[in-house]
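B., you asked whether I could sanity-check this one before it goes into the benchmark set. Here's the sequence:
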Amino acid sequence: MSGEPHLLALAGAEPGCYWLDDPDEPDATDTLVEAETADLCVVGGGYTGLWTALLAKERDPNRDVVLLEGGRCGSGASGRNGGFFESSLTHGVSQGLSKFAPELPLLEKLGLDNLNEIERFVAKHQIDCDWERNGVIDVATRSEHMPDLAEQAMHLEALGQDIELLDAERMQAEVHSPTYHGGLVRKKRAAVCDPARLVFGMKQVALDAGVRIFEDTNVTELIERDHAVELRAGYGSVRAAKVALGTNAFPPLLRQMRHYMVPVYDYVLATEPLTAEQLDSIGWAGRQGLSDSTNQFHYYRLTYDNRIIWGGYDAVYYFNNKVDPQLEQRPETFALLSKHFFETFPQLEGLHFSHVWGGAIDTSTRFTVFWGRAMGNKVVYAMGYTGLGASATRFGARAMLDLLDKRDSPIVGLDFVNKKPLPFPPEPLRWAGIQMTRWSLDKEDRTGERNLWLRSLDRIGLGFDS
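And here's what the prediction gave me:
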């Protein structure tokens, strides 16, 4: 058999998500077929929705909570991401300083508390999701990236964080790759896990707490009626006093939400398990999560059985916010990711990929979660996580509940919670702007030069830091 090695590595790969190819996936719950009532109705069975339901029952076990999911819990971004859980709520310290500098010390504390609470939840309920709190390394794949990492290290140290800046030799001692020029270690600020198994565990804990979950139940309409909201879904409906929306990148249920979010497709590869010799050839004894420090970055980590999950770089927007299961497969992107993989780890030539998949990420112009309210504060939503939000979903849920319950908490007064991002323009300007930005970011990664387009976005507060 002849051909390019990076293409041969894709031969026989399963076109589907590795995490969701799990015989232990729980059975689906019933579809909604009747008219129900609830104190709180949650829309979305991913992390945001499940955390909202769980925290609502934790605060008031007698609260009647219904959760509606259009497919299966975790079938969207929550079950198909890289499994990185970071403490940052602001998509990194650079984003935090540029947009929320006065609040950043508090946001960093809240983010670490949030990650610790997720870890305690996993331990308390003995959720089998291969949770590993090994930290993360931001890797410099060009020498020109080291000054930026040094600047981030300075800011993180000023915030009291335990970090370490690695030169090329020390980075190579951690993980062996000819592309590495250094790295920034953020110790204990991140964990990795099996993201789908975390969803499965959360779903069971929610059911045990009395949350009524209806799967394969697509909500089509919200109607304000007197002092409640009616949600039309499936063959039935739910009348609820309060509604929390955690619909991620799927078409928004409120018109106002459509201006602030675009779905961008991210693509991922999973290798077959590495042998002991292959593992020895790359080191990685610390099993940290890794990501490039470029604009268009790769993220990668080891699984419990020593596969490498390799994703990112080629984020793709489809015209008019298109979301379709057919877009989860994109051979040209898989080929590009495979080529980059073997450039990073040439010593693994001959290794094959077992699974290839994609999924939609909800992206906002500020690249972090944001919140909004509607229908006289009876409806609240959280969205816009932009690919670094697995752990931030719990914080997103907490803030939604505080807003719905009009709770006096330290977070409801934050600009981070109360200010929305700038809206995206309508089509076709939306598509053209996103394509121009992707082209410009790619050029900056190749040349180190930030062009006029990117500098203009910086000036109006839309500077991109992936």
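One thing to flag: The radius of gyration is 22 Å. Otherwise nothing jumped out at me.
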